């Protein structure tokens, strides 16, 4: 029964709650109106499903209630109720599509009043989105939890809101994928793009071609039963699964067991390095297409989604150019270059996909005017190819700007819009931009690290793809992202905890006792991993360990945005900004004070010791900051040459070194540049 109708059980619920709605919704809904009061959550919280319900909706409601129970610490028994008395009514018109497509109606409305909550949706999918919103609305209010009274009408801006995970270059354990799906559902993402094959590993069992995994996976692959389980798990959460079998390049692992597919002589091996390699399929032989047809047919029976991704990226054409038989074929078929030959291959692939009732998705390399307009182009090389495709009549999804392995900030990703405000696309062309996908390439992640590379930044991308274009306040995004990041931990994600675990491992068992962990925490709070090219310069392979500090640090830690703000606020009026001065001085003093503790710790921690130069730089940056603030706050000029010395130090600290980079250099540069010299 609604809590407001049972004042005996919870007297506080008799009055409208005085509390203020703290909006931490992520993504922000399309329309939200705050109402007076709040619904108090009590153990007698009940739910009722309206005239329609099915197993999927029942599961979703049960999961939501279990999460509500954990969030509130209340033993919510969910006793039977009727729609007049239930705290939450979930009113769904119908089940939704038998096979979820990009046309699915995902909208919902949610009305919370002091006496109850009402969720209405056209389908299960919208109801699931609404339940996620409801759970995000839960907030403490003194000694109780409430749902603030709101009226929400919500629907996504884009129909394709995806996350791609490359499970080829490093195998990502199955349970990690399941918890990732939970997290995707929490931020209303609806496509899991499963990159299953790479030069470095073939990750899906084929019963027709068992040597694909026997010879091409190091024993690290998903069984067909697991793939079916994942598809069902995703469907239960409103998420489509689009598998990718990257062809004709990036196929080294296929060719180890099936060298007859190859356009080159071999021998082939599972690739350990990263990059673009020569092994490629032979597009000239019928046997290649027979193999692909059988394989795609086998996969089509496992993956019901209307789309299948054929990759198509980064074929360097080397083996095609070196093979006289393929050269003769190209000459005979009037194919002027290897791009034309790949187009020939794609045409054949398209027929195979059509036969198995699949629409083709591919990376932008596949875009040629010969392909029909019902394919989807995934744009990774740049923004312009997405718009160019839309102008030519092709549907597209944006991934340029959403590459998580580039180690950009959540802010950088957030401000990338598949249809920017200044877009010159017509309404029809804009409608062809289906959405976007965050891409987690796995050169530099394994199962232990991947959560912290995906989350929480992907929640910012999820909001970009769901919420109205005008929702773009970066500070507000970071405020809500911090709240969502903690909520996401309830799915077992380790994106926050793995840093603490990694630091303890690096520091060694006695560090906590010696009190050195504070110094280490100060140090790492202003560090993050290098960008993609920085990590690439280390020439890692699939066999490299993941124990370095780089892999313990999250990209875009809170220090980056917080410190930027602190300095910007201070610089508005340094002489008057006493609080800012105190805060900054405290930070700089901590950097200086950390050095001796860090050096002592590093003397007994060989892996941490590799970052010793950064610890020494941090102390010098502390001195730099401290001096800058004392000049600025006192209004006194610095001596001649001071600035040049500080800028040189900042340049040095900005160089690629030790596999970690500072998050605070630009604001420090702003401080230095604001100082006057005599
Ligand atoms: C890609 O990044 N090669 C799609």
TrEMBL record:
Gene3D superfamilies: Chitobiase/beta-hexosaminidase domain 2-like, Glycosidases. Pfam families: Glyco_hydro_20 (PF00728), Glyco_hydro_20b (PF02838). The active site is at 314 (proton donor). It comes from the Bacteria. Keywords: Glycosidase, Hydrolase. GO terms for cellular component: lysosome; membrane. Residues 25-155 form the Beta-hexosaminidase bacterial type N-terminal domain. Residues 158-468 form the Glycoside hydrolase family 20 catalytic domain. One of its GO terms (biological process) is glycosaminoglycan metabolic process. InterPro entries: Beta_hexosaminidase_sua/sub, GH, Glyco_hydro_20_cat, Hex-like_dom2, HEX_bac_N. GO terms for molecular function: beta-N-acetylhexosaminidase activity. Belongs to the glycosyl hydrolase 20 family. This is Glycosyl hydrolase. It comes from Paracidobacterium acidisoli.
């Amino acid at each position: 029964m609604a809590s407001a109708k049972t004042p005996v059980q919870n007297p506080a619920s008799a009055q409208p709650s005085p509390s203020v709605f703290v909006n931490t919704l992520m993504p922000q809904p399309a329309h939200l109106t705050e109402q007076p009061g709040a619904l108090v959550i009590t153990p007698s919280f009940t739910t009722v499903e309206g005239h329609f319900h099915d197993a999927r909706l029942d599961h979703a409601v049960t999961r939501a209630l279990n999460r509500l129970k954990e969030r509130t610490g209340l033993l919510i028994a969910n006793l039977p109720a009727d729609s007049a008395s239930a705290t939450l009514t979930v009113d769904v018109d119908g089940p939704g599509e038998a096979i979820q497509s990009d046309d699915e109606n995902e909208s919902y409305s949610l009305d919370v009043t002091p006496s109850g909550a009402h969720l209405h949706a056209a389908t299960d999918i919208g109801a699931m989105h609404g339940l996620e919103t409801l759970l995000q609305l839960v907030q403490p209010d003194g000694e109780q939890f409430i749902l603030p009274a709101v009226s929400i009408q919500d629907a996504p801006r884009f129909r394709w809101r995806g996350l791609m995970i490359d499970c080829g270059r490093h195998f990502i354990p199955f349970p990690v994928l399941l918890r990732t799906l939970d997290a995707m559902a929490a931020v209303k993402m609806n496509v899991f793009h499963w990159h299953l094959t790479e030069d470095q590993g073939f990750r899906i069992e084929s019963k027709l071609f068992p040597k694909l995994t026997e010879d091409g996976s190091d024993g690290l692959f998903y069984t067909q039963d697991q793939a079916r389980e994942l598809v069902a798990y995703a469907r239960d959460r409103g998420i489509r699964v689009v598998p990718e079998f990257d062809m004709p390049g990036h196929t080294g692992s296929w060719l180890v067991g099936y060298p007859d597919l190859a356009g080159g002589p071999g021998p082939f091996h599972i690739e350990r390095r990263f990059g673009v390699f020569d092994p490629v399929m032979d597009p000239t032989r019928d046997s290649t297409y027979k193999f692909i047809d059988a394989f795609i047919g086998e996969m089509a029976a496992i993956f019901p989604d209307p789309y299948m991704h054929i990759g198509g990226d980064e074929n360097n054409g080397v083996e095609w150019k070196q093979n006289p038989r393929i050269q003769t074929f190209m000459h005979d078929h009037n194919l002027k270059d290897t791009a034309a030959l790949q187009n020939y291959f794609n045409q054949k692939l398209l027929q195979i996909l059509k036969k198995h009732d699949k629409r083709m998705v591919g990376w932008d390399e596949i875009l040629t005017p010969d392909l029909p307009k019902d394919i989807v182009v995934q744009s990774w090389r740049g923004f312009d190819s997405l718009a160019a495709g839309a102008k030519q009549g092709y549907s597209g999804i944006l991934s340029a700007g959403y590459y998580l392995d580039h180690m950009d900030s959540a802010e950088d990703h957030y401000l990338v819009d598949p249809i920017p405000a200044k877009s010159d696309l017509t309404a029809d062309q804009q409608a062809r931009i289906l959405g976007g996908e965050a891409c987690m390439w796995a050169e530099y992640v394994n199962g232990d690290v991947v959560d912290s590379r995906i989350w929480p930044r992907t929640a910012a991308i999820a909001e970009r793809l769901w919420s109205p274009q005008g929702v773009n306040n970066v500070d507000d995004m970071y405020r809500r992202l911090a709240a969502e990041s903690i909520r996401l931990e309830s799915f077992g994600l380790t994106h926050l905890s793995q840093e603490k675990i990694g630091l303890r491992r690096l520091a060694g068992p006695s560090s906590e006792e010696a009190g050195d962990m504070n110094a280490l925490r100060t140090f790492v709070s202003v560090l993050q991993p290098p960008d993609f090219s920085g990590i690439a310069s280390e020439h890692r392979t699939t066999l490299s360990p993941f124990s370095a500090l780089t892999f313990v640090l999250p990209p875009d830690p809170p220090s980056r945005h917080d410190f930027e703000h602190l300095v910007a606020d201070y610089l508005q009026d340094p002489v008057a900004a006493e609080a800012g001065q105190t805060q900054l001085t405290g930070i700089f003093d901590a950097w200086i004070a950390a050095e001796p503790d860090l050096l002592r710790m590093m003397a007994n921690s060989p892996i941490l010791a590799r970052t010793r130069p950064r610890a020494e730089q941090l102390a010098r940056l502390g001195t730099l900051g401290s001096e800058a603030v004392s000049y600025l706050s006192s209004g006194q000029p610095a001596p001649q040459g001071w600035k040049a010395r500080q800028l040189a130090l900042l340049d040095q600290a900005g160089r690629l070194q030790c596999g970690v980079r500072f998050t605070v250099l630009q604001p420090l540069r702003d401080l230095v540049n604001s100082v006057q010299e005599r």
